[in-house]
């Protein structure tokens, strides 16, 4: 049995780990425990600065050397003080995120740390099968807008991270007036899509899950 503490930036990711990742990984001898990152004394969730993330990740890594620690943090709006952010910026998407994750691992400096950045954010995973939004919303025009987005990119992880064109912004633009709420609908839609489909459509996410599976061997 291998314990893996998954440090997440919000309640949506926390639910996603518990509801979609926990059981498949348990079958591989890997037990996932999501932990909300704390960004202030009053609240949890969100990544405001790298310094606050670093101290929590490092503390978790040092608290139990027999456990592994990983992260589920959005590449979108990554803090400006993130290690090597400028140096990695010019690289193509997957080379850039690999560069950032390597810099993250190097800065933490603990052998039990497995960094992961969501490309570009959690909501991108929901475009693995955008037809599943129809299970929760029934107006055809906004659903067609999301399907058009999904088919317009090489894969969901390529849906870009612009201020108005990131996956979350596209969903909010189409479904916000219909009552879309990320903490409620995000995990439910992900469960409707299923882990196998998400892994097939999102290579970087799949590589992370594969690493986690390997920890139980």
From TrEMBL:
InterPro entries: DUF4276. Pfam families: DUF4276. This is DUF4276 family protein. The lineage of its organism: Bacteria, Pseudomonadati, Pseudomonadota, Gammaproteobacteria, Chromatiales.
């Amino acid at each position: 049995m291998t314990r893996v503490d998954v440090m997440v930036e919000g309640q949506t990711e926390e639910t996603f780990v518990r509801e979609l990742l926990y059981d498949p990984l348990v079958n591989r001898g890997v037990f996932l425990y999501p932990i909300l990152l704390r960004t202030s004394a009053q609240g949890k969730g969100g990544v405001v600065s790298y310094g606050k993330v670093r101290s929590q990740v490092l503390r978790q890594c040092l608290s139990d050397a027999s456990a592994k620690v990983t992260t589920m943090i959005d590449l979108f709006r990554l803090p400006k003080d993130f290690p090597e952010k400028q140096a990695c910026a010019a690289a193509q998407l997957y080379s850039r995120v690999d560069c950032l994750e390597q810099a993250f691992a190097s800065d933490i400096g603990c052998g039990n740390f497995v960094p992961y950045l969501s490309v570009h954010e959690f909501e991108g995973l929901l475009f693995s099968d955008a037809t599943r939004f129809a299970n929760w919303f029934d107006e055809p025009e906004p659903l067609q807008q999301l399907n058009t987005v999904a088919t317009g990119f090489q894969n969901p992880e390529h849906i870009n991270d612009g201020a108005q064109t990131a996956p979350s912004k596209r969903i909010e633009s189409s479904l916000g007036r219909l009552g879309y709420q990320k903490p409620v609908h995000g995990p439910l839609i992900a469960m409707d899509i299923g882990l196998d489909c998400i892994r097939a459509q999102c290579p970087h996410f799949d590589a992370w899950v594969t690493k986690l599976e390997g920890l139980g061997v």
